[in-house]
Amino acid sequence: MKNICYSMKCRAPGRRGYYRAGPALEGTPCGKDLICHGGECVKNTISPGVSNTAQWSEWFSTGTCESGCIPRSKGFIKKTRTCNKKSPVTINSICPGSTTEVTLCDNPTCSGYTTAKDYAKTMCTKFIEADPRLTSKIKAHGYQPAHIS
C-alpha cells in the first residue's frame, strides 16, 4: 500500500496486466495514520480532516390518502426523505434505509371509482408508454391476469 505514493499500478477492463498511472495525489491515505506526501508514505501530521456523515432529512408527506379508486380498496400515504451529505463528506458515508415509506389508509379521496380490470388496463398502458419494451410481456399475459376476476 505504501508504494502507491511513488507509483500506482492500475488495471483496465479489456486490458491485460497492469499499467503505471503515476503517483497518488498528495494527502491520499496510504496506511493507518499515513498519507502520501512528496512521493512518500509519511505520518499524517497535517490534520485528520473534517468528518461529515450523511444524515436523513425529516420525513415529508402531503398527508393525502391516495388510491387507484377501486371499490373496497385501501389507499396509501407516501412519505419521502432525502439523504443530506455536507461537504466534505466522509468516504463511504451513506444513509441506511429507504427514501420512501408507504402506509395504508382507509377512506381515500376519489372523484369516481373504476373497476379492477379498467384500472389494470390504464396502468399497463402507462407502463408501455414509459417503456415500450414491456409491450410484448404485458400483451402476452393480458392486461388483467386470469387468476383475478
Supply database-style keywords:
alpha+beta; 3-stranded antiparallel beta sheet; 2 helices; 10 strands
Task: Kindly summarize this structure in a few lines.
With 149 residues, the chain is an alpha+beta fold. The protein has helices at residues 116-130, 135-141; strands spanning 9-10, 19-20, 29-31, 34-37, 40-43, 55-56, 60-61, 75-80, 83-84, 100-105. The strands form four sheets. The chain has a three-stranded antiparallel β-sheet with strand order 3-4-5, with no helix packed on it. The chain has a three-stranded antiparallel β-sheet with strand order 7-8-10, with no helix packed on it.
Could you walk me through the main structural features you see in this protein, from its secondary elements to its overall organization?
The protein is an alpha+beta fold and 149 residues long. 15% of the residues lie in helices and 22% in strands. The protein has two helices and ten strands, in the order ββββββββββαα. It has helices spanning 116-130, 135-141; strands spanning 9-10, 19-20, 29-31, 34-37, 40-43, 55-56, 60-61, 75-80, 83-84, 100-105. It has a three-stranded antiparallel beta sheet, with no helix packed on it. Strands 7-8-10 form a three-stranded antiparallel beta sheet, with no helix packed on it. It has a two-stranded antiparallel sheet with strand order 1-2. The chain is elongated. The mean pLDDT is 80.
